[in-house]
Amino acid sequence: MPPPPTLFHHSLQSPWLTLLSLFLLTRLVYFTIALLTPSRAYDSSTNLILPSQPPPQGDASGICWSLVSKLSERLTRWDAIYFVKIAEQGYLREQEWAFGWGWTRIMGAVGRAIIHLSPSDIPNPYPYVFAGILVANLSHLLSVFVLYNLTRLVYPAQDGVAVSFVAATMHVLTPAGMFLVAPYSEGLFALLSFLGYYLYVRSTYAYYSYSSRAGGLEQAVWVVGAGAMWMLAGMVRSNGVLNGVVVLVDFVKEVWDGVLIMSWRRRLARIAGLGVAGVMVGLGLIVPQGIAWMQFCAGKDGKGAGVAMREWCSRTVPSIYLYVQDKYWNVGFLRYWTAGNIPLFLLAAPILYILTRSSAWAILNDTPFSSSPSTLSQPAGKSKRPSAPTALTTSHDINTSLIRAFALPQLILAILAFTSYHVQIINRLSSGYVVWYWWLAQTILYAQEEEEKQDGSEGRRRKVVRWAVRWCVGYALVQGVLFAGFLPPA
Fold first, then answer.
1. 466 CB contacts (<8 Å, ≥6 apart)?
2. How many CB atoms within 10 Å of residue 311?
């Protein structure tokens, strides 16, 4: 492989500083787009909830407030209008339960803190808009660093620094774009999901670390922590429950045909930890539904007094989320497959391809990463006992297994988006999944070398990835203008 460019080599010397600089640069670009984009081109809903003429507070303060209020108005679009009102007032209407309970609770708490700490009165609901923007951007920044560290765990060899840096850079440049700047939940969802993946990798390494006497208890703590992160992610966005597939696969594998060289205590701790983690992931979806059931069906708080019980209360699975998505948002199997939505499917096609192609790479490839295998240490003074055919004895085996498991949630998401969701939202939902970043990063760094060995040409895969990167950046910028102007699609 030819030597890397000087700028790239310099970036690898201080990757965190480079990622921070790139993140701040993208924020400057997005804020500029938001401020310069003409408004009221399509919808005036934002102006119904935000005061159009906030009170002036002196020359300098007035100019500052004018910029801040204008930026807030340009970033409060589409679902953000619901997020802001729910954060301020709570869930008052049935259809509002389509929006993440965990996200609106956090926006509400931070918004009330801003009101309490602010030296001057800020007209409502601006504090909740500020809260959403603050948490969204801070979460995205932290998720960039978590993804970098997660990738360093899975790619431990020296070249893992380059893979980690490119993967984290792609997360900064994700096509989610303005949705990671505005008061939306994608940034927080990515942070919680990546933290869950990080803890899950740590738990798996602890389980297979034969030299660690505390491996059984340590891995159980890590895996329960991963379950807790994915539970919170599920409260923020319902698709967070898909991360439970990772836990389910490992649980079934361990119960059915686990690693026989493990002591029964260590294996039992693994099974118990996975079981608790799986339950916790499920609670991320169940708890908000239980709160809604108490409000609309049980009438415990009195809010349902004098109101007829809703039809979804008596269903076998009394889920308000599934009900309002079906009734108010027309979400369902093949419902989006209409001639008028063909342009939206075309907009979603690139990221759908990337998600499915990278998932196939992870699941079907025997070595879906470049790091050299290294045998894990064995207990001192003991010979290695016979193991089951599925036993994982090298970091190569473990990392391959992890990448395959992490590919399953994003593959299921791509299938659901194509068949049942408003398909264009896959461009922002994809930001919270990791395998496609790894696939892009490895292809950018290694595809040319591999394919030149075969036919002396640059190779089709590298060309596809170059096109994909350009599309991600270009789409994010165009989408930012459309978002700030309140123009579809969203």
1. 444
2. 10
**32: in domain:** no
CB 168 within 8 A of CB 18: no
Co-location of 274 and 298 in the same domain: yes
Last residue of a domain, one of 155, 181, 207: 181
Short-list 168, 233, 162, CA closest to 195? 233
Query: For the whole prediction, is pTM greater than 0.70?
Result: yes
Domain count, the chain: 3
Say yes or no: 251 and 107 in one domain: no
Sign of the CA dihedral running 178, 183, 186, 192: positive
Contact 175, 348 (CB under 8 A): no
Of 91-95, 198-202, 392-396, the poorest mean pLDDT is in: 392-396
Mean pLDDT of 207-235: 86
Residues 6+ apart with CB under 8 A from 249: 405, 408
Strand partners, 394: 375
d(CA 235, CA 241): 9
Q: What is the DSSP letter of 280?
A: H
**CA–CA dist 342, 344 (Å, integer):** 5
Q: How confident is the model at residue 158 (pLDDT cuts 50, 70, 90)?
A: low
pLDDT digits (tens, 9 = 90+) for 159-170: 789 999 999 999
CA distance 230 to 437: 19
Q: Do 335 and 304 lie in a common domain? A: no
Query: Which of 124, 159, 181 is where one domain is finished?
Result: 181
In this structure, are residues 192 and 141 in contact, taking their beta carbons and an 8 Å threshold? Answer: no
Write the pLDDT tens digit of every residue in 95-154.
999 999 999 999 999 999 999 998 878 889 999 999 999 999 999 999 999 999 999 999
Full domain range(s) for residue 214: 185-319
Q: How far, in whole angstroms, is CA 246 from its chain's centroid?
A: 15
Q: Is 83 within 8 Å of 99 (Cβ atoms)?
A: yes
Q: Let me know: does 164 contact 89? Beta carbons within 8 Å.
A: no
> Between 37 and 213, whose confidence is greater?
37
pLDDT tens, residue by residue, 403-446: 999 999 999 999 999 999 999 999 999 999 999 999 999 888 87
Whether residue 177 is found in the same domain as residue 256: no
Assigned domain for 379 exists: no
